Amino acid sequence: MRILFVIDKRMNAGSIQAVASYVSAADRTGHTVAVYGSPDSSLSEVRFSMDAHQFDFVVFILESQLSWLSGLRVARILKAVPHERRVVLDADGLYNDVVSVEDYDRNHSGIAERNRWREACERLGSRIFQPTLTPLDPRIKPLLFYGYTPEEETRAKDPRGKVIDVVHVSHNWWRWKELEEHFFPVLDRMRERIGEICFLGLWWDGCPPWAAELGLEEAFQVDRARLKSLRITVRPPVPFTQVISAMSSGKVNIMTQRPLFQRLGIITSKYFEIMCADTIPLVLIGPQLAESVYGPAGRDLTLNGQVEQRLLAALESPEQFQGAVQRVRQHLRAHHSYQTRVQQLVTALET
Amino acid sequence: MNILFVSKLSQFARSVFPITKYVEIGKQLGHQVSLYGEQTNEPPTLPYSLDTKMFDAAIFIVYESWDFPDMPYLAQLLDGIPRERRFIIDCCGRYNDTLRVEHDFNHLEKMDGHQGWEWVEGFEAVSNTILQPTQKPLRNGVRSFLWHAFDPASVVKPYATEQEAVQSWSSSDRDTKPYAMTYVGHNWQRWTQIRKLLEGVQPLSADFGPIVFAGSDWEKRPDWAAQLGIQGVDVDPELFALARVQLRPPIPFQEMIGFLSQGRFCPVIQRPLFNELGFVTNRMFATFCGDTIPLLMLPRNLVASIYGPSAEPLRVDEDVKGHISQILRNPAPYWKAVLDTRKYLAEHHSFQRRFQQLLGIVEGKA
Questions:
Q1: Distance between CA B35 and CA B48 in Å, rounded?
Q2: Could B122 and A123 be called an inter-chain contact, meaning their C-beta atoms sit closer than 8 Å?
């Protein structure tokens, strides 16, 4: 099958890493995946094509906004590819009804915005997929789009050689409340027992100037004084090709997920990248969700309700976690590789 | 006929003035003209609609890729109005092979993310009728439609004779006409001509008076231009100081003609690309509405073909200083040229006439 992805090419966020993995996994499984556009020297591993009509299906990968979808491109694709051969991956769960989690994180500011998004999805594609095992809306089909790349598993080095104790690779996008509730109080109590803590990503140094205009200041909430008092180092984001190596610079990595995604059960690329890194991966998600993705051993890597114990144990006795990490990797290789994902995508498109 | 215009409106740039005029004149002539989109309270107050079924034709007025509506509105439009009833007015010559004229260009991926082929194929996906505001389109299949036009009702001081004009112009005090020259426009691909203008003006005596520019990015070469390596968006603060140029922020289109009228002279300068393509712009017509003497820094053939034979004295050759000095010494022939050109424009390039031409194209009669 020939599949064309239409995607916002963001180098340090979004789905570009997944798309690059689809291209190579499809080549190994007898399919062809390309990204709409002309070749990009900064993405040499990605195949590009402008000939939408030569593909069996076009997959629009929509994240949190539509403005990147140039009218010039959309018009051309809509003309070249019939509606039944176009589908949408609604990566951030915006096709759902308005969902607000604890009056904080939300998918839409109101019904009108939700309606616009829905209509955009329905006009772009005949089917809507979401990267969740448990879609809330019966019109949404589950498709775990993001996957695991065994070839990127990083061999363990002696953690004593690492200068950073805890790494958190994430943009500050609906993260603050969760950190303030679950992570920072623990640090308050035990900061002296932890070495350097480093957050890599955008907006940890302040809310972007355009957020207010969009009514999104809350999404970028940050207290720089709080970060400073906890001696958390903030560094810029890394491109998708360096995520795993950046994670591997820390003895321990924590993975947080915005509350909305937890509610919707949305599985992101971070779920899998953190398991490739040479680190002890600790994920701030519920044990049930962890098990559904990572297998039974995933429960041993969750932080929920036991941040202090798990974090200290991972730093002081990392060997305790090695078995769980290996079992999770084994599970991911068997069930969530990009070769599996390509097959799942092909099956979903054929259905 | 019900006509739907599709474009992103800005009070400070592009086609906001012609669009307001087409809406007004369409109504006068018994047609309905609206803009595609949700009704907005932003000025200018214009009718908006999303009800594609109500309209006989959609006219896309395209400068940038974002002149196409966002989703889902674009798809609504494409689904609601058939291709043969969709028209594109290509205001920047995008529907051509890639062109470079001096530093100017019609396609540049690093500016807007689109290569030349995307512009061409994107346009073709939307419509099979591409119109360009030039009398001589380069590309086969492109039709000429000037779009921009002259509005006699907007003339600030419709003098009956050149003597009357000269008397008013020469006796204007500093309160009504505080500037020697006004210019409204953003710093985009006009620097070569602006430099030539200012270098010509600068040796004139201090009595000539100050010059004012209203527009964006004249304070310094913008950071984005430096980052992207875009030429033709330069400034020279030293030259600005010598020529006594004052800078003002962009002004909304409703104030443009009044602002131009605060100066005795007003240059008409176009991007090199537009000169090459013979494109016309709103500035070429609106400047003749101001109480000012236009300095036409345009190719001779463009001046003749758009403004008619009377405008030739207003065209500035190489000698900017000599041209202005001559007008200051003996303004009457130049004001005669202005008044005769206004008549010519009213006769040949009025919005009423343009509207009829547009109807002819839409109805397949032209």
A1: 5
A2: no
**CB distance A70–B68 less than 8 Å?**
yes
User: Which DSSP symbol is given to A182?
Assistant: I
Taking chain B (366 residues) in runs of 10, the rounded mean pLDDT of each run is 93 88 95 94 90 96 94 94 97 96 90 91 96 97 97 96 95 85 92 92 85 93 90 90 93 93 96 96 96 97 97 95 96 98 98 96 89
A50, A72, A95, best to mutate vs chain B, most B CBs in 10 Å: A72
Question: With contact defined as beta carbons under 8 Å apart, do A252 and A197 qualify?
Answer: no
Task: Estimate to the nearest angstrom the gap between the alpha carbon of A81 and the chain centroid.
Answer: 29
| Contact by Cβ (8 Å): A348, A126 | no
Instruction: Convert the pLDDT of each residue in B168-224 to its tens digit.
Output: 999 877 778 899 999 999 988 889 899 999 999 988 877 789 999 999 999 899 999
Angle at B115 between CA B112 and CA B116, to 5 degrees: 115
Nearest to B324 by CA among B205, B189, B175, B163: B205
Beta strands in chain B (DSSP E): 2-6, 32-36, 48-49, 57-62, 86-90, 100-101, 104-105, 130-132, 143-144, 179-184, 211-214, 245-248, 263-269, 293-297
Contact status, residue B35 vs residue B48, Cβ threshold 8 Å = yes
Question: Strands A105-106 and A100-101: what pairing?
Answer: antiparallel
A70 touches B: beta carbon within 8 Å: yes
> Are A57 and A87 spatial neighbours (Cβ–Cβ below 8 Å)?
yes
**Smallest Cα distance from B79 to chain A, Å:** 9
Residue A305, judged by CB atoms within 10 A of its CB (0-12, 13-18, 19+), counts as exposed
What is the SS3 string spanning A147-158? CECHHHCCCCCC
From B318, B314, B305, select the one nearest B162 (Cα to Cα): B314
Judge: B75–A120 Cβ closer than 8 Å, yes or no.
Answer: yes
Q: Residue A17 belongs to what H/E stretch?
A: helix A16-28
Q: What is the C-alpha to C-alpha distance for residues A60 and A65, in angstroms, rounded to an integer?
A: 12
Task: Return the residue matching tokens 């100081």.
Answer: B241
CB A285 within 8 A of CB A302: yes
Question: Is B118 touching A (CB cutoff 8 A)?
Answer: yes
Distance (Å) from the C-alpha of residue B294 to the closest C-alpha of chain A? 37
DSSP string, B164-219: HHHHHHHH--TTT--EEEEEE--SSS-HHHHHHHHHHHTTS-GGG--EEEESSS-S
- Are B232 and B217 contacting, i.e. CB atoms less than 8 angstroms apart? no
Of A70, A80, A120, the CB nearest to B72: A120
Q: What is the DSSP letter of A196?
A: E
Distance CA B186, CA B13 (A): 9
> Is A72 in the B-facing interface, judged by CB distances under 8 Å?
yes
In this structure, what is the dihedral angle of CA atoms B195, B200, B205, B208, given to the nearest 10 degrees?
Answer: -70
- pLDDT in the model for residue B175: 79
